[in-house]
Amino acid sequence: MRYSLASLLRRGLARNVGWTPAWRDAAPRAAYDVIVVGGGGHGLATAYYLARNHDVGKVAVLERGWIGSGNTGRNTTIVRSNYLLDANARFYEHGMKLWEGLSRELNFNVMFSQRGVINLAHSKPQMDGFARRGNAMRLNGIDAELLDREAVREKVPELDFSEAARFPIHGGLLQPRGGTARHDAVVWGYARAADRLGVDIIQDCEVTGFQMQGERVVGVHTSRGDIAAGRVGLAVAGHTGQVAALAGLRLPIESHLLQACVSEPLKPLVDTVVTFGAGHFYLSQSDRGGLVFGGDLDGYNSYAQRGNLGMIEHVVAAGVSMMPCLSRTRLLRHWAGVMDMSMDGSPIIGASPLDGLYLNCGWCYGGFKATPASGWVFAHTLAEGAPHALNQAFTLDRFAEGRCLDEKGAGPVPGAH
Amino acid sequence: MLIKCPWCGERDAGEFSYGGDASRPRPAEDAAEADWLAYVYDRDNPRGPHQEFWQHSHGCRQWLRLRRDTLSHEVLASGPAGEPLGDGE
Amino acid sequence: MSRLAQGGLIDRERPLSFAFDGRRYQGFAGDTLASALLANGVGLVARSFKYHRPRGIVSAGAEEPNALVTLHGGARTDPNARATMVEVHDGLVAASQNRWPGLAFDLGQVNDWLSPFLSPGFYYKTFMAPGRGWRFYEGIIRRAAGMGRASRLPDPDRYEARNLHCDVLVVGGGPAGLTAALAAGREGRRVLLLDENPRFGGWLWKEEREIDGQPALDWLAAAEAELAAMAEVRLLPRTTAFGYYDHNLVAAVERVTEHLESPGDGLPRQRLWRIRAGRVVLATGATEQILTFADNDRPGVMLAGAVRAYLHAYGVLPGRRAVIATNNDSAYRTALALHRAGAEVAAVLDSRSDSAAPEVATVRDLGLPIHFGATIRRALGGKTLQGVDSDAGRFDCDLLCLSGGWAPAVDLYVQSGGRLRHDEGLGCLVPDRAKQACVSVGSAAGSFALADCLAAGNDSAGGYVVPPEGIGVEPRAPTPGPGKRFLDPQTDTTLADVGQAMDEGYRSVEHLKRYTTLGMGVDQGRIGQIPARLAVAEARGQPLAAMAATAHRPPAVPIALGSLAGREIGAHYRPLRRTPMDGWHAARGVSWQDAGLWRRPQFYPVGDENIDQASAREVAATRGGVGLCDVSPLGKIDIQGPDTAEFLNRVYVNGWKGLAVGRARYGLMLRDDGLVFDDGTTSRLAEHHYLMTTTTANAHAVLAMLEYHLQVIWPDLRVLVADVTDQWAAMSIAGPRARELLAGLVDIDIGNQAFPFMAVAECRIAGVAGRLFRISFSGELAYEVAVPADYGQAVWQAIVDAGGPHDLVTYGTESLGTMRIEKGHAAGPELNGTTTPADLSMARLVSGKKPFIGHRLLGREGLGDGARPALVGLLPVDGKTWIKAGAQLLTEAEAKPPVHTLGHVTSIAFSPELDTPIALALLSDGAERRDQIVYAHFPLHNEVVAARVTSAHFIDPDGERMRG
Question: Which residues does C380 contact at the CB level (< 8 Å), separation at least 6?
Fold first, then answer.
């Protein structure tokens, strides 16, 4: 069923009887040409672009629980491509272009809202750093604007411009095309679109091991039986270490908690995405009205999907310091996602040491916005057996070669990225 | 979380700084580059008991070794960082 | 007026005036906003989130879905406050929300008529036009969504936090919580009992009950008195436990002043309690459930228990003619209470076939009409309830009391990691296996009878005698049909929505919840939990017991962000570190610069100088004469022990074995991955005593790294380290006249022979015992003076006083930066965590004779690549245009994106000596490009500056000045 205003009206007049499933609940077959492990945004986007852009035969997505149950449904939904390093900037900018046409492409409104992303700067060195990044963005064909204090005030007057501010706002870096999207809609939209192209989406199907033929992966063992595969791609960020270990791989990844929060729904208060520069805090307002915000990692290895109070207090203190009127709004929920923290803060997309097995992991905080680009290049990698130009730098070998993609210069301390 | 410092006793995790995976033996200075690469970059990253370093940075500043469950956050054992960890206490 | 002539726990001697939507009403002390509105006959209090349907007060507690109001105004505006939890004080101002132009006539109600086209997920299915198209629709959706309107002004109130340790934390002061607290208190334990209400007792003050033959209120008073008399027991009313975290940490918020008309000075609005408990008793009670039928959201539809509470606690009769619909025995107590209060009970509609419970018999004996096997089909009316249409016929009424059973409040329990199980008999989820040291008791554990609640803490001490009561819940799945049958009134989610989501394949409980927004509201769908589970299980064709419970995440109830932020906001967001000479600088009207947590003088303006003028003057005066700079924030680490030289040899890339006592040396340290970590000078003060300096930014990280290596990697080294950054005031005296100035202040010979470059000595400076270092960051003849912090300002003043004849200037970080850039010293912008020693032209420093931290991975192919950016100097070709920091470097003046850049400008300054702007840059193939022209692109400002590549050492490349 194609979605449109007409279909809404037609179904509405029929008392909303007769809607059909957005995607089939497929049962696993004995074999697929390509299996994507992980039914989050990345896995589903990969399957969609495999079917759309490549001639690879039968594709399946295997999901342990329900699709979108991992980090796609746990993030703060920010989309941006304001990166410094060429490899990151070009990759995320490709994603930005895909985002811009995604609702129509998927026939599913992912509510991509280009309301702008402002990074606040609180010192001259920080402004210099933003200038460096903004100039690099512009030279990579990405939109960026440097804002002075007054320009920031004009856009978000509720920020703390008072004398009391511990770290006064000097200015900011704006990416006007950045914004937010509706996370669940991305999952459902890709699932529905992939399903229409014949992809099997198999939920409640946990991968428990890999079928090997020598050094080659030829299929997976699952909670719903063995499935053979020409190629297997992992898109299980947060749990990559666990799934890769089933194939005997040890990766440059640690799993860490990142907490996120949402306030009660309020009438429009903040019209852009704002990030604090004197602490970890980022804020946007969802279309439902909830203020969505997050901060820094809890700071230790964890798979718990539940964070602790101390970090919430720090994050909220940063938020109220950035925007004092937040103090009286109420926190509705806070939760945690499990991040694949890589050793340089950038993702790994490409071949694994085993033939037939490909990795898409190490997303750190950046996974959600990467969804379309990640699916695009991972589909290419799986279909061709070789990387797309945009993920050539995201190899597993870059650490051994000394070609890390370290935007922050934080070094091999995953929690610091 | 509560973390047991071998010198100061049980304290809130806020007093400590995380020092990462403690299960990796540091290679000898002249060990092969591959060993150093594995040490610096690769992790077991277990879902369950995990041996890790913490420093009592807002306390006695001693480094300690902890066995902590990364799924439940339960602390299973703690001891001085420079010594192997017992089975728990 | 619906206020009864007598009864209730309100203080009728203290009338209060309050306003709702601009009209003034009267209530009494002890009223909630909800009870006061009901007492005034105000039935319509809100409009619903999506369809703008008229809504009234449903509950008498925290679970209230409808009656959300905005309190106060201006900077104290408090949107989405639950009227059932707001205590009325004189002058309270409240307003309804999410309606326009008013509550009675709300244009938004058009959504109710359009609802067939606003089915679940309608916004996913249209408005797909990219760019502006969606932004336009989004604006409409955003304005329609949301509930209350937040203030845009800073919150004038204050919040604070306290920590508390106890043996037993009891959450909830109902009968179960009270007996648990009494039992623990009698054993002498440290007990904390908290309750979200202004008073303890739970249901004991919300309805008429008896314990041991006495009114329950008497028992309650005695219990409270006994607890209050226990020294180790603390009682916190108005305190809501909202989060249960690892290792038995429970977080609660106490509402300190919100119920007061004029809070006393110094009191916080709210107080966050961080409670670390040995054991937690969860006596959080249970939430009564609604029944699902068409238009079950009309104003006048209330929970049966809430009606008892309004009667008993507030003396309010919410209706004159009532119908009661139930699937259990508890609602019969409402029939009794209404009857006794003089209301007419038109019918009791019981969906069960019969009940033998004593309260049923009492109602029957009174002759009130009971219809077994009867359910409601539809509620009648619009803004007010007119009646019900049921299996047993039509009944006119203005009050409909619902009881769809009770759901234990398990939020905190689930947050603690505990598992739930479905209890067939009770028809609800109850705690099963706890994970942390906690126990659920009373209604929270599914023990709904008062006798069982009182037994909670009392299993050894013998029970209390209470009249028998029935429970007898028989839940049944709601039946679909025409009309809106709400499962979650707050989010306007209906039974039909669940059906549609199922048809569309959103069958997993989490998909369904997210797609329909069922249970996603502020109230988390509490009063519709059981009907919703029944409906979903039915739709999935699955037994309830097999259905997954949805997650409960903190906070259990919404809490103000201010209470979490506490006092670490605004000016106190981070501590401010001041150098020992801070007061002197402040008195000079200095311009400050943040450097991490430190504040440092950026420049010392004379007259109305701007930063560039002041800095140019300071630099010229220093290079031409002598300048004084506060350098206290540099990290200082005291290192002692016989193996220190070996230790430093392993830490730094360069050799340290040959450093003599009384000498300093520059050192560079790497991370394990071979990239530059930090730099600084380390001095050998005595045979086994060294002092290391670090950059300000990395002071903590370097210390922790040194401690790690000493404690974990090299425990055999006899070395101790201690941070002494705060112990010393440090000041740099630089310039050709530095020696003549200092000579008069110190008690040692500082001639170039006796005290050459990189010499170190202990001596008296202006009479104060301290240390003198002949080190230079500026490239001039320079000394660094260090004295104990307490003497800093005095010594600084002495130097300033002595400097008069030498034309001494004080200079700030701007001039410090200029001089280090002129000298080509790498600092923060160059030590950015991605550079190697070779990138910074310091490859010569790296020893090939010894291992050091990072040496093994320094040789990686990518780190030796000749094309890596290397440190160079840049001069504008025209000799005058500033090259901006953050500019990107290309060999062409024209750039057509996307282009790969060759590097970037890291640091910039104006050199008074060269009379030109200068810059440091990291440039690919930097050494090869010497004397070539590159273009510094700053597209953010549409600027391109042609620059000539030079050495990074703009001034005195051979270092003659500092050695002279």
Answer: C295, C298, C386, C387, C388, C389, C394
